[in-house]
Structures are given as structure tokens and as C-alpha cells.
Automatic annotation (TrEMBL):
Tetrahydrofolate dehydrogenase/cyclohydrolase NAD(P)-binding domain mapped to chain residues: 115-275
GO biological process, one term: tetrahydrofolate interconversion
Originating organism: marine metagenome
Name of the featured protein: Uncharacterized protein
CDD domains: NAD_bind_m-THF_DH_Cyclohyd (cd01080)
A molecular function GO annotation: methenyltetrahydrofolate cyclohydrolase activity
């Protein structure tokens, strides 16, 4: 991907601890970078790393002219101050769009880097021809990574947006008003048919491992893939119950739905960061 006079873009990820989902995401990111000609590096740190030491690694990457994008894989261990870590990433290299400066630009409707998962979802809605303007959009989950930026993006496209959380009253009734329903809570098969009106577009951001045989049978019934369960010891399921497919106009699969969109948006942000660097250095 290098052009005349310019090196290839480079993305550096920091992976703290041994969270399986985080490790899978970083490995997928690395393979995608290789396929696109983007240089990739992963810095693996122990779970007991201090906030100070982690910020030290970020400071080195901030000043490294050979690095265009910095990704700190979340969630971080409970002993690390996540806000302090994200605040110390150079906003020009913050390809996850989580630095306060980039969050502010997003809220104003002029983002530099759109957070990868919400950005990927917006691209998917556009490519599928899902009408956003005037639509009722409901988001379950108000995280900094998905829920809040998703709300901003939809509002700037003239959707009427409701953000739900653990204190929302009569959650199923609120969700049934949605033309577009985005679910990002990390609870396996939480959203059932009772939450969804016929024909709604349902975006399942969750990815959960279900290791209890009784719960697998409860979710999938006679369609349970016991061969896969016995091989792995778990089944991967989203936040949306499979039965929702019967009434939804569209439902993203898990796995293989939102995940690839997230990776694609991260690659796009990395290229944008490289262009910013190239423009600033002439």
C-alpha cells in the first residue's frame, strides 16, 4: 500500500492481559492488515501492568514517526485507569476515536475518526439501503465504544434516537418502537421477539460464549449444534435471541456480522491517519 515517496501505513495495537475475545480481535486485525499491505504490530503486556507504565508505552508510540495508528484493546483490567490511558493517545493517531478531542468532534458532527463499530454499522445500513432519516432508532447500551457514538451518528443522520440502559422502564415496549434496533449489552440472547416489531432492522453487536449446556438448549432448542459445543466447550451467541430472525426485516449474524464491519472501519481509520501524517510532513 506504499506509494511513491511514502511508506506503508502502520497500526500498533496494545493488548493487556489474556482476555480471549480481545486476543481474537487483535489476531483478526493483524491478518486483515497483512492482506491490505498495512504494517501491523502488537504490544502484549501482562494483566498487572500499571497505568503509568501503559501510558509510557503510549507516549513512545505518540512520538514514533513510523506509527500512524494506535489501538488500545478494550476492556482493560480493572486495575488500569482506562480514561487516563485513552486521554494520553495522540488524537491524530487515535484510530478508535475515543480520545476526548475526537469524541467532541464526533458529537459536533465533524468527526476525524469514527469509532470502528458504530462507523461500520452506519456503512452497512447505507449499503443495505436502510432508510435512516426519520427512522425511530433504539440503542440498548450506552458505552463509550458503541452506544454513545452510535447515538451521535444516527442523530446527525436525522433519526429519532432513544438510548436504553439498565434503568430503562419497560424495555421491550421501548424497543418495539424501533425501526432500527442496535443491541450492545453483552448478555447472551437477551433480546427476544417481544422486543422487536415486525420488519425492524436489528443490529446485534454482542458476542458471548455460552458454556452451560442447559443455557445452549434454552436458546437453540432442537437446533442446538452439539457437535460444535462438544468440540469447543461453548457456543458463540449474540445479545439477540435467534428467534428474532423470524420477525425482523434484517438481523446481523453472530459471529460474522458486526465484527468484520468493525475491522473494516479500523482499517479505514488507519489509512486516514496515514494520510494526515503524509499531508503534515509534505
Amino acid at each position: 500500500m506504499a506509494t511513491a515517496g511514502h511508506r506503508s501505513p502502520k497500526l500498533t495495537a496494545i493488548l493487556v492481559g489474556d482476555d480471549p475475545a480481545s486476543a481474537i480481535y487483535v489476531r483478526t486485525k493483524t491478518r486483515t492488515c497483512e492482506g491490505l499491505g498495512i504494517d501491523s504490530e502488537t504490544i502484549e503486556l501482562p494483566e498487572n501492568v500499571s497505568t503509568k507504565d501503559l501510558i509510557g508505552y503510549i507516549d513512545e508510540l505518540n512520538t514514533n514517526k513510523g506509527v500512524d495508528g494506535i489501538l488500545v484493546q478494550l476492556p482493560l483490567p480493572s486495575g488500569v485507569d482506562t480514561e487516563a490511558v485513552l486521554d494520553n493517545i495522540d488524537p491524530r493517531k487515535d484510530v478508535d476515536g475515543l480520545h476526548p478531542h475526537n469524541v467532541g468532534l464526533l458529537v459536533q458532527g465533524r468527526p476525524r475518526f469514527v469509532p470502528a463499530t458504530p462507523g461500520g454499522i452506519m456503512q452497512m445500513l447505507d449499503r443495505r439501503g436502510i432508510e435512516i432519516e426519520g427512522a425511530n432508532a433504539v440503542i440498548i447500551g450506552r458505552s463509550e465504544i458503541v452506544g454513545k457514538p452510535m447515538a451521535s451518528l444516527l442523530m446527525h443522520r436525522n433519526a429519532t434516537v432513544t438510548v436504553c440502559h439498565s434503568r430503562t422502564r419497560d424495555l421491550p415496549a421501548v424497543c418495539r418502537s424501533a425501526d432500527i434496533l442496535v443491541v450492545a449489552v453483552g448478555r447472551d440472547a437477551m433480546v427476544t421477539k417481544d422486543f422487536v416489531k415486525s420488519g425492524a432492522t436489528v443490529i446485534d453487536v454482542g458476542i458471548n460464549r455460552v458454556a452451560a449446556r442447559a443455557r445452549v438448549e434454552d436458546i437453540f432448542g432442537k437446533h442446538s449444534d452439539w457437535e460444535k459445543f462438544n468440540q469447543r466447550g461453548y457456543i458463540v451467541v449474540g445479545d439477540v435471541h435467534p428467534e428474532v430472525e423470524e420477525i425482523a426485516g434484517a438481523l446481523t449474524p453472530v459471529p460474522g456480522g458486526v465484527g468484520p464491519l468493525t475491522i473494516g472501519m479500523l482499517m479505514s481509520n488507519t489509512l486516514d491517519a496515514a494520510r494526515l501524517r503524509a499531508a503534515s510532513t509534505g
